Amino acid sequence: MAKYKRCVRCKETKSTDQFRRGNNSDGLHSWCHDCNREYERGRRRTAPKYNVDSTVLEKCCSRCKEIKPADQFNRDRKNKDGLQAWCKPCWTEHRASVDHDVDPTVREKLCSRCKEVKPVGRFSSYRTAKDGLCSWCKDCVNEHGRERSGKLNYDVDPTLREKHCSRCKEIKPVDQFDRQRRSRDGLQHRCKSCMKEVNAAYYLQNKDKFKAYRQAWVEKNPERAREIGRKRHLKKEYDLTLEEFDLLLVAQDGKCALCGEPFNGVTPHVDHDHSTGRVRGLLCGPCNKTLGFAQECPKRLLAAAEFLRRQGFAVEDFVLTSAEARRLNDEWAARWS
Hints:
The protein is of the alpha+beta class.
């Protein structure tokens, strides 16, 4: 087969990989990819778009010639009934028959958008193509996606009150759908509950892939991963944000709320009331463990101080009077408020 061919529409001679498969004697289409793409864009702009006809309950598949329910056909806004001419099984069978693996003999390919010859590693796989590769390189695909996302950002339609979920086939209020800026009504086509089920099933099927990706990201961004883990721990255990934690640390002058010793770069422990969950302050490790082992019992702590005094320790130099304790508590409360 010749390596070059002349396009009937643009009258230019191009390489054969710029033509899709066709019924001509050379096995290729008469128009090149660019001409086909330009024609399809113009056709889509001018062609009328139809919604699914609710009165159609059954339809005959033009491939297998069987009459099947309407839910056995995918949507196609170009047809007057809003459904494809082929049923879902026939369409799936057809797609499987045109799947191609990446040609191992191909080392380089011409991008039909930027007109540059690049290694095959710069092209994504596309199973319906003859060589198993996309006609655009990855850079062009990303650039086109950014341009398209900037043009197709829609706000939520304020007149919309209900929407039909394409998965569970139920009509639900719009607050049951998440935002999707590329959709014309600004909402996803599946409701929140259906999206939750789909995402959960996809995660279970690809659990190992997600785990490997997460591990690779943590190894690449250790500081960021540590910050996210710390923020998640504070929110889950103490309902405390990272900003509130930093403000509390500044209010205590970087010192332990119990013994008054500076933390010196060591991460403080968050002390909280286990019955109410209220955060009481930041403590050093020994003080936090002391309160935990003493089960937050003042009688037990005072008995420990008396025990140390009997053993010869000058406990009187460290024991606060009730007036001093009240003054310190009022001072810390004023700083935290």
